[in-house]
Amino acid sequence: VCSRGSYIVGDNRYSRRISLMKTFLEIGSCDFQTLNHFADHGWQGAIVEPMKKYLNNIPQKPNVHYLNYAVDNKIGTRTLYHASDATVNEDKDFAGMSSFLPPRPAYEVLTEETVVNTLTFEKILEFTGFTRIDYLKIDVEEYDLELLKIFPFDIVKPEFIKIEYWHLGEEPFVNILHKQGYHCEISDRDIYATKL
């Protein structure tokens, strides 16, 4: 864990502040098992969650941006399918399930529709000012591959990536990650990719 602080690079005319903090970016957080606690250990970060009621349940920490958006390939709005409050009250795990894709096998509980605001990865980086990402976590119910395809690796290459793959198969994820210079470890649901 890096300590908080910054240092100056260059002479007085061209000096700039560089953060020494490690940085996380979490896409699709709901309100449980988030990376929010990393802030307690000197990290900065951004949590991006399209469902405001879940984002509002996450305790606010210094150095963390809480962004009420869904990530997509353009800025705008989109329909998000999610479980009803009654379904979530019966099983809290359904709170973490929302998708741009309409109800389908294994996701029949996504019966509710909400229009949400969308933004791009580039806009997140611009808004937060992050120039590096140490940990990228993506969990967006079968849209994970689409987000990996549009991630701006040419702007920033995360040191470590955790991404859910189980519903789509590992091969397309691993192909992209290998091309970007990552070593991949595969569990039953997630891929853990480390930049080489």
Q: In percent terms, what proportion of residues is strand? A: 25-35%
Compute the gyration radius: what is it?
17 Å
Which structural class do you get from the secondary structure elements? alpha/beta
H/E element order: EEEEHEEEHEEHEHEHEE
Distance between the termini: 20 Å
How would a textbook summarize the main sheet? 7 strands, mixed
| Number of distinct helices | 5
Unreliable stretches: 1-19
Residue-averaged pLDDT, rounded?
Answer: 88
User: Can you tell me the overall shape?
Assistant: globular
Percent of residues in helices: 10-25%
Order of adjacent strands in the largest pleated sheet: 5-4-3-10-11-13-12
Q: Could you tell me the number of beta strands? A: 13
Describe the structure.
This protein has 5 helices and 13 strands. Helices cover about 15% and strands about 30% of the residues. The protein is globular, with a radius of gyration of 17 Å. It has about 200 residues and is an alpha/beta fold. Residues about 1-20 have low confidence and may be disordered. The chain has helices spanning about 50-55, 85-90, 120-130, 145-150, 170-180; strands spanning about 5-10, 15-20, 25, 45-50, 65, 70, 75-80, 100, 110-120, 135-140, 160-165, 180-185, 190-195. It has a 7-stranded mixed beta sheet, with helices on one face. It starts with 5 loop residues before the first strand and ends with a strand.
Summarize the structure.
This protein has 196 residues and is of the alpha/beta class.
Describe the secondary-structure layout.
Blueprint: E1 6-9, E2 16-19, E3 23-27, E4 44-48, H1 52-55, E5 64-67, E6 70-71, E7 76-82, H2 85-90, E8 98-99, E9 112-119, H3 121-128, E10 135-138, H4 144-150, E11 160-164, H5 171-179, E12 182-186, E13 190-195
Parallel strand pairs: 3-4, 3-10, 4-5, 6-9, 10-11
Antiparallel strand pairs: 1-2, 7-8, 7-9, 11-13, 12-13
